[in-house]
């Protein structure tokens, strides 16, 4: 995928200064950003700290030669195109290198114009597709395909394209639409999928803590820094850093983050040395960053850095075709989890689920189905099994007076409390009363913070 706001970058590696200078002049004049390294090790350092779209490397170099550099690139940056420059005598080595994954080789002395054209053509190709390479792992299976409407298929098409590249992505959408899920999908479908996917909830982390969470600290740098601590950015090295609720970070954090995105180096709080970190950044927010910029709350330069590509996930009410697919998906998932027979969803229930506006989006739908499965009778989901906050449907009004259309969560919690009271706090028996698995009741007790121990003690 082409990064339209930044020129593409080429790393030129050769121990001959003249070759470096000639290529620098040629490629820069075509609008490319050129980085130069006089050996393989230096090249690896640059690859760690800079976005590079293509590497042109000599074959024979002291210390680390071209094929050794290629092997490292295939390991750490699968998909990155490499062209070799080679003297006639080393052509067999270059051919071997192409067989093991380089895109091509060019003999020295090279025709500068032809080489530039070759580089441009490879860069153009890799905007759409990374060149085939045996070392590149197969993409992860499309596990979401059973839950997407045509509108989401389009978004998933973009996700696939974006996943192959390394560009920063900004994911926008209301709370609960699936932003984190899409970020994870980008990670899973890209070359970094075997490496860490680190989620940072910027909204839920107090401002004072976020800096040390992200950047880490050295022992003694502040009162509670009792030992060295690695930050989450460092943890995401070679993988993906997902910054959720990016709209909520303080002005100081915006500046630190911007600096990191620009030089890809972190310094722990209280630390002296910087450390290069190579991680992909995906940020998400449900806030209107345009408005936040206008109000002076969010830095425009950081915004531009984060949104090299922007993906917007529509709210569930605008893609109702997804609802039946998601309902089926969640019903199967929760029935399996709660070890119950798959429940039936009559047409009336599905119609009702499709009519509702789902202000909490997919998360609300998911929770509703989970609760509905616990509460339903005769293995059939009916509208009255969904006691959603603020909804009064005919079916809900017909429900028994003591149910009183409580919020789904309250209602589910009360059901579990009642079952625990009935069984003297014994979870296994309460699970039997409710017809759910022990694992399911254990999970729900934890989810609602129910103190089963004190119920037991009272009996
Ligand atoms: N297409 C989908 N298929 C299955 N589950 C989904 C899908 N989209 C979202 N979900 C589920 O919905 C819930 C909410 O998704 P997610 O956390 O990704 O939303 P979000 O937009 O990041 O929310 P927030 O803004 O609150 O951080 C998660 O449990 C997720 O697994």
UniProtKB/TrEMBL annotation:
Keyword list, A-Z: ATP-binding, DNA-binding, Nucleotide-binding, Phosphoprotein, Transcription, Transcription regulation, Two-component regulatory system
GO molecular function: ATP binding; sequence-specific DNA binding
CDD domains to which the protein is assigned, alphabetical: AAA, REC
4-aspartylphosphate modification, residue list: 58
Domain Sigma-54 factor interaction: 149-374
Pfam families with a match to the protein in the record: AAA_lid_14, HTH_8, Response_reg, Sigma54_activat
PROSITE patterns from the UniProt entry: RESPONSE_REGULATORY (PS50110), SIGMA54_INTERACT_1 (PS00675), SIGMA54_INTERACT_2 (PS00676), SIGMA54_INTERACT_3 (PS00688), SIGMA54_INTERACT_4 (PS50045)
Boundaries of every Response regulatory domain copy: 9-123
Region (Disordered): 122-149
InterPro entries per record: AAA+_ATPase, AAA_lid_NorR, CheY-like_superfamily, Homeodomain-like_sf, HTH_Fis, MCM_dom, P-loop_NTPase, Sig_transdc_resp-reg_receiver
GO terms, biological process: phosphorelay signal transduction system; regulation of DNA-templated transcription
SMART domains according to UniProt: AAA, REC
Protein name, as recorded: Sigma-54-dependent Fis family transcriptional regulator
Native source organism of the sequence: Desulfosarcina alkanivorans
């Amino acid at each position: 995928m082409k990064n339209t706001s930044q020129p593409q970058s080429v790393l030129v590696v050769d121990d001959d200064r003249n070759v470096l200078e000639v290529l620098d002049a040629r490629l820069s004049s075509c609008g490319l950003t050129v980085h130069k390294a006089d050996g393989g090790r230096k090249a690896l350092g640059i690859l760690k700290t800079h976005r590079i779209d293509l590497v042109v490397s000599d074959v024979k170099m002291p210390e680390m030669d071209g094929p050794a550099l290629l092997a490292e690139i295939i390991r750490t940056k699968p998909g990155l195109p490499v062209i070799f420059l080679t003297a006639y005598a080393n052509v067999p080595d270059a051919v071997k290198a192409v067989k093991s994954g380089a895109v091509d080789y060019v003999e020295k002395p090279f025709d500068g114009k032809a080489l530039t054209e070759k580089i441009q053509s490879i860069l153009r190709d890799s905007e759409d597709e990374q060149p085939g390479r045996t070392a590149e792992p197969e993409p992860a299976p499309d596990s979401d395909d059973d839950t997407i409407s045509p509108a989401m298929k389009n978004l998933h098409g973009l996700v696939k394209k974006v996943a192959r590249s390394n560009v920063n992505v900004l994911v926008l959408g209301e709370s609960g639409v699936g932003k984190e899920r899409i970020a994870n999908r980008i990670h899973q479908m890209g070359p970094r999928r075997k490496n860490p996917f680190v989620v940072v909830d910027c909204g839920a982390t107090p401002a004072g803590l976020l800096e040390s969470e992200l950047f880490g600290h050295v022992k003694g740098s502040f009162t509670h820094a009792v030992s060295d601590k690695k930050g989450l950015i460092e943890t995401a090295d070679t993988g993906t850093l997902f910054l959720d609720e990016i709209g909520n970070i303080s002005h100081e954090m915006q500046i630190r983050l911007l600096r990191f995105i620009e030089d890809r180096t972190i310094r722990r709080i209280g630390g002296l040395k910087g450390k290069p970190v190579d991680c992909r950044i995906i940020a998400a927010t449900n806030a209107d960053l345009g408005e936040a910029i206008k109000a002076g709350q969010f830095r425009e330069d950081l915004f531009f850095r984060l949104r090299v590509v922007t993906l917007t996930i529509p709210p569930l009410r605008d893609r109702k075709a997804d609802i039946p697919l998601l309902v089926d998906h969640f019903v199967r998932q929760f029935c399996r989890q709660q070890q119950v027979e798959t429940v039936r969803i009559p047409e009336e229930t599905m119609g009702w689920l499709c009519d509702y506006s789902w202000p909490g989006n997919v998360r609300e739908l998911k929770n509703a189905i989970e609760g509905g499965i616990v509460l339903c009778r005769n293995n059939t989901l009916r509208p009255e099994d969904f006691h959603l906050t603020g909804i009064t449907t005919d079916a809900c009004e017909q429900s028994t007076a003591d149910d009183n259309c409580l919020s789904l969560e309250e209602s589910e919690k009360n059901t579990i409390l009642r079952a625990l009271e009935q069984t003297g706090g014994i979870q296994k028996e309460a699970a039997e009363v409710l017809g759910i698995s022990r694992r399911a009741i254990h999970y729900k007790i934890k989810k609602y913070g129910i103190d089963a121990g004190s119920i037991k003690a009272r009996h």
